[in-house]
Amino acid sequence: MASSRDITALLGDWCAGKPQALNQLVPLIYAELRRIATRQLRDERVGHTLQPTALVHEVYLRLIDQRHVNWQNRAHFFGVAAQVMRRILVDHARRHGAGKRNHGATYVPIDEAHGVAAPNEMPVLALDHALVRLEKVDSELAKIVELRAFGGLTIDEAADVLDVSPSTAKRDWRTAKAWLNRELGRDAAE
Amino acid sequence: MPMTHERWQRAKALFQAAVERPEAERAAFLTAAAGDDEALRREVESLLYSDAGDVGLLDRLPVASEAVLTDHCDVMSAAAGIDLSSATDSSPRSRFGEAGAGVRVGPYEVIAPLGVGGMGEVYRARDTTLHRDVALKVLSAHVALDPDRLARFKREAQTLASLNHPNIAAIYGLEESNGVQALVLELVEGDTLSKRLAANAGSTPPGLPIEQALDYAQQIAAALEAAHEKGITHCDLKPANIQVTPRGVVKLLDFGIAKVLTDDAGTTEATTEGLIAGTPGYMSPEQASGKHVDGRTDIWAFGCLLYELLTGKRAFQGETLSDAVEAVLKQEPAWNLLPGATPRSLRTLLQRCLQKDATRRLQAIADARRAIERAQRRWSRRRIAATAAAALAVLAIGTAAWWRDPAVLPGRSDWVQITNLPDSVMHPALSPDGRMVAFLRGPSSAIVPYARSEVYVKALPDGQAVQLTHDNIWKMSPVFSPDGTRIAYTTVDNRFGWDTWTVPVAGGTPQAWLNNASGLAWAGPGQLLFSAIKKNPHMVIVAAQENGNAPSELYVPAHVQGMAHRSYASPDRRWVLLAEMDQDHAWMPCRLVPMEGKSSGRQIGPPGAGCTFAAWSPDGRWMYLSAKTAGENHIWRQRFPDGEPEQITSGPTQEEGIAITPDGRSLVTAVALQSASLWLHDARGERPISLEGNAVDASFTPDGRKLVYKVVRSLGDYPLTGELRIADVESGRSEPLIPGVQVLDYDISDDGRQVVFEAVDRDATSRLWLAMIEDRSPPRPVPTVDGRQPRFGAGGDIFFRHSEGAAGFVYRVRADGSGLRKAIEQPMQLLGEISRDGRWVMGWTGRPDNNGAATQAFPVHGGPAVVILAHSIRWQWSRSGDAVAISNGPIPGARTYFVPLTAGEAIPQRLRGGEWSEGDVAALPGARRIDAIAVPGPSPEIYAFYRSTTQRNLYRIPIP
């Protein structure tokens, strides 16, 4: 298995403009996400559910050598991890189809995310489809949603990845939410 | 109006400016800023509305359940560089000593070792509880002693145990006993496919005969399809993992086990233990390069297998990992090795399966299965003839769904189908141990009590049906001998001589046994009951010894024309149930008579019913009856001796014949189902659009280039929910329209861009949804109350039926949920079509004069309804509104008339008022008759129609 230093170097390479480094980075992040997930499940925390955003943070702490990483690299790492997390959730949901939705992923309100097994189904695919459409309308907005929802980035971190000001990120996040909520309907709130 | 980039940027800026303002000021701000750009204002308004809403989806975090993250084939191990060439365990340690015989693991008694695999030893063992042989895989200590891996293994074993498919070796469970962990698996007799291929290697050509290769490939694809449907991938498909039983049934072994046992992080462990994530030569390019793996990896391996079946050679040679990876990534298979007779469609299929780029590969194994099945059909002239013959029996189908009252039937999800033959399977009989079923198989047109048919036998649950007789004469009542080695059955010759023959269960020449003896049954060791003709046609029940000695009349029908056909002794042999015909040879209620004495007993079951078969529960406390009441054949039972008859099956299918399982908990019966395929008629002739599943509710898109239809699992289920498919008329290719969504009813918009459909959500409420036909975005709900039977009407409004108490009314609503109002004042039972001019709503409901119900047309703009006909008919306007298709009800010999309409005329004058006959329709100017239920297309020459047949198959039904 690649060492923390190797991974950090890959991240540095990628941030420095070597796209092929990403190809190596993604499977490593993917494997680590799954490994940590499995361990957490064994501990039977949060009723057999996980918060992908927390997972992403833990992966970061484990994979990246903190001494050799700067703030920008960190944000970029989360950008990649968010994409990987999204792919995991979407791939899973797609394979399991609408008929088996409760084997997929679920949403819980932010406030209840700790210690509560979610009763509501999360339309991962619906979110993904809506994001794909949003990408066509406004790719910046879609990116910020991916970072926030799947990568667990704060507004400030997302602003950094996207190279915009925090106030712009905040406005865009609100706009994206309004757009997506309109697209996705209000069924989850009913 | 499409939102251009520029317009979106404006809307976004306006929204962002507006939300900064207090809510009260926003409207004024927006009006001022948007000016008279109405679309822009509405766009921003909707965003503001959404922003102000309660908790939206994005205020919730995604939470992954464990299934998400333990889902994939483990490919990261390959990525991290496992050496796959060290896949076999070189130092097996037998946990049970040399032979292991006699060791017990829970209820399993080890008989003999079968082999050693990477994960542990495999034994043949006897299940002392269920008296069957199983395969026990005893997990190696590496797995068994690691609680983490064991826990994961158990979870996965549970998932895999849900894979119930005849072509997948079943996982029965996990047994833990004295520190031994063992996986209990179905024991599959026979050879592995690799052995079969090796045995064939010396012959010329080295591959299997094409028909056999297709047969195996079809079974493999069907198994993969079932697994993929459950989200389970095999990831290690190869000839060594595929077993072929002596009867030619293919079974996939080790489903998902490679995946289960490959630890996600412990790559070094995986190596030492010989666990693999693919086998050189069958691994997909993405596996070989350590990328993300999914069901398409199985499709690749399936391609490798099919190639090898046909050629006898591996598609990609390479004994070491590096050789194999090299070949898989860079080389093409030697296509010239394929036999010259290989159909072109198979070559294409192979190439699509063996696409190195997974995104360009065949995406769904179901497509491979269908392609194979098409090739099989073409390959076998005999089968083509059979298909054509079946298609000739045209019955009316499709209207049933439309007009049937939506009564709720008991769930049939627990019915287990045990035969799947295209014609008629009848007269089930179970072997004494319940492991075999015998039955008669005849043509679709067979009537059940006795018919021209052959005797078959099948091992349960999923052995192949084996034909035991080949004489094409009338038969009835097969029954197993008490030792389970023979099947006795009745033959009826053309002089109506009724004799009993026997045939060995294992196959062999049938032997004549008893003349003038029919409906034979054993009544204990050495003791028989049968029917004998006293004086033609007077048929009586006789008890006799097995050698025919000491016959005595047990029951004699009172009328000399009466015929007592079948008899069934109670488990304690003190009573006999019998089925008889009256003097007109109509079936009467079944009868219960004592074994001793000369009492003629009494009738049981529903009064007046025609009772054709009967059975006892093993404890003798229940009598089961196959009885016809009000024209419907269903299963009944009655408590012995004096209970009330109660019906235990109901619904649109017909059930005939009864065999009770030895545990008394379920019964096997023959269930008659109609099946419907959708065909297209155009200038090129007639061709099938959908042969898979049952197609119903077809409708052309307005441009006539696509055909939308619903595929339902069984026409016997109600409500008829199914997936919508959309077929390209030109190419015949079809695909799911709204994948994974079970739809009850739907309609296509006049612009052909969207469908509105009815689907039941989790709280069993019918809701309406909209989906775009082209972009396949996820459906969005029509934000309104619950409703059913949605139709697009004038101005794009959605009309639907909403239940209010016992009645239902037609409402209309705009797609955005606004403008909800009642559209028709009169209550409506079933909502039909809306005329293309938007002026008429067809429906089925009570007549204004309270004189029963009728098909009626309701003017959308108010006014009295026009009665069309007192019967329920199918009424479908063509898409352009220039014709109407009128079909009669769901009866055999359905007919459709295409009637041209003049401009402005949606309902021909002659058909108003409800006083017309079929002849009147036929006489309408330009009327054209189609002998099927037909769906009008873009022109009179193009239409779709249904062909249907009756199938009878055996089902196992739990007894309540």
What does this structure look like?
Chain A has about 190 residues and is mainly α. Chain A has helices at about 5-15, 20-40, 50-65, 70-95, 125-135, 140-150, 155-160, 165-185, and strands spanning about 50, 105-110. Chain A is built from eight helices and two strands. In chain A, about 50% of the residues are buried. With about 950 residues, chain B is α+β, with helices and mostly antiparallel strands. Chain B has 19 helices and 57 strands. The longest helix of chain B has 20 residues, at about 210-230. The chains are: A mainly alpha (about 190), B alpha+beta (about 950). The interface between A and B is large, with 76 and 59 residues. β1 of chain A pairs antiparallel with β1 of chain B, so a sheet runs across the interface.
The protein's oligomeric status is: heterodimer
Principal-axes geometry of chain B comes out as globular
Instruction: Please mark out the parts of chain A with pLDDT under 50 across 5 or more consecutive residues, or reply none.
Output: 41-49, 97-122, 186-190
Helical fraction of chain B equals: 10-25%
Shape of chain A: globular
Topology, number of strands of chain B:
57
Mean pLDDT of chain B: 79
Specify the helix fraction band of chain A: 55-70%
Beta-strand percent range of chain A = under 5%
What is the number of beta strands of chain A?
Answer: 2
What's the N-to-C terminus distance of chain B?
Answer: 58 Å
The DSSP helix count of chain A reads 8
User: Which two protein chains have the largest interface (Cβ within 8 Å of the partner's Cβ), and how many residues from each?
Assistant: A-B, 76 and 59 residues
Strands of the largest sheet of chain B, in order across it? Answer: 2-3-4-5-7-6
Model regions low in confidence, pLDDT < 50 over at least 5 residues of chain B: 60-99, 260-277, 381-411
Question: Total helix count of chain B?
Answer: 19
